[in-house]
Amino acid sequence: MDVSTVFGGSPVVTAVLLGIAIGLGILVDRFILARTSKSKIAQARLESKRLLEEAEQDVERIRAERIDKVEEALREREEVLEKEKAENRRLIRRSKEKLETRQEKITRRVSRLGEREKIVQKASEALDLLRKEAKQTHREAERLRRIVVRAEEEMKTKRDLLEELKASNETERSHIENEREELRTTLSDQLRKLESITGMTPKEARAEMMERFIEEVKLEAAASVKEIRDEAKLKANREAKKIILSAIQRTAASHAIENTVSVVNIQSDEMKGRIIGREGRNIRAFEATTGIEVIVDDTPEAVILSGFDPIRREVARISLLRLIQDGRIHPARIEEVVEKVRAEMDEELIEIGERTVIDLNMHGMHPDLVKLIGRMRYRTSYGQNLLSHSIETAHIASMIAAELNLNTDNARRAGLLHDIGKVVEDEIEDPHAIVGMEMCKKYKEHPDICNAVGAHHDEVEMNCLIAPIVQAADAISGARPGARREALESYIKRLEKLEDLARSFKGVERVFAIQAGREVRVIVNNDVISDTTAEMLAVDISKKIQSELQYPGQVKVTVIREVRSVSYAK
Questions:
Q1: Residue 253 lies in a domain
Q2: What is the residue range of 499's domain?
Q3: Are 348 and 374 within 8 A, CB to CB?
Q4: CA distance 364 to 445
Q5: Tens digits of per-residue pLDDT, 48-102?
Q6: Residues 138 and 12 in one domain
Q7: Is residue 136 domain-shared with residue 222, that is, in the same domain?
Q8: Same domain for 557 and 446
């Protein structure tokens, strides 16, 4: 028999009664369990007393063991009771959940019925609305039908009017054609009279007018160009300064970045966290020890070292690479590695200096000067490696001295040491030539060498023959004049082509290419070229040169128009 039938058939009442029955069952079960546990505890205590009376010899030991066993049994029993309580709670929870689930289903069914009732109501309302719209559409169609009938009647009337207008237009068109024919006849008569008066055909007259118009336009354009050029000349200095300053700023920025930054590649971006350390202690210790700023940004697998001292930056780069390879990165280890690399760098500088001195066949140089020569390896001068520049200067100075039958050893030595003042560690405000001269005097170099070092930028007066040689060798190595020198034949061909191109314009009498092809002077006929058209001629020549020739730098075009008035006194 179904429980819901017994309790009146209501699912809610049935669920409530089932919950009450389950709760009573749980309470009875708990009461029975409590009574059972109490009786078992009492039996255990009696048993323990009997055992204590029988075990007189080892009473303490047996009591402890028995008590432990009893307590363990009690704990196990309590655990069983707890599990049973938990199971009972779970059953109660499940029954509650079932009741809640059933209640939710009932609620959803009620809500669905309500929604269905609303849908039916809306459908009936929509059906009524459609009936009303159908009636309104029928009335609108009837009204449109009446409008169409009236429009057909009006169209018929307008068609009749259009036929009348066509007939009148035909009459007007024939009248206009007659007038147009009369105008053509009159115009042809006028043209014949004009030809007889001027002696020119219409085509010739049109060409003459066009030529005069083009000439006037050219003159106006030349005048405008002259005004624009005059205005540009007024602003030339200011604009040139702006352009040069902008170029210097952009170039200086790129060179500064190139000469003050080193990039250390790492295997993965996880290493960046180890380089920074906890709360940044590793990176602070590294910067304090090396004096170089460490930039850890979003650049993938790279860390940037920034600093103006190239040797300290190189020490920092090598130290960081070794720390990354070792894997142990902490402040104490950082200081240890940096000190070791710094000592190795000092040895390397000495080795570079000694190797350079041996390669140049120099002897008896002071060890401090040798170390400074090694420091040149990590310095640049206007983008050129300082050591390479000094070695090249030494070779050039030696060759020039040999051609002049002078002391090649002193010239070579002075060429190598001429920029030694740039790598002195002390902060001295004097020019590097003076600093280098003082260093050479300090380490007992020859007086001619000291004078050549100090005078290569004219800071002091030259009093020996190798001083101008070192100055010239420094300029040759730095500026390298002649590196872009063209072959003689191609140079002559370029100048000839330049003159021929300027000579191809109308009114040009003579052309001279001067300043190695950097300027073209064009002398024109003053009868053919006016002052106004001279401006246009200069512009045209410069455009043609720019489009047809290849040349270094820029070419200046100067148009010269000369008027000579000659008279004789008799």
A1: yes
A2: 488-561
A3: yes
A4: 10
A5: 777 767 766 666 777 777 788 878 888 888 888 888 888 888 888 887 888 888 8
A6: yes
A7: no
A8: no
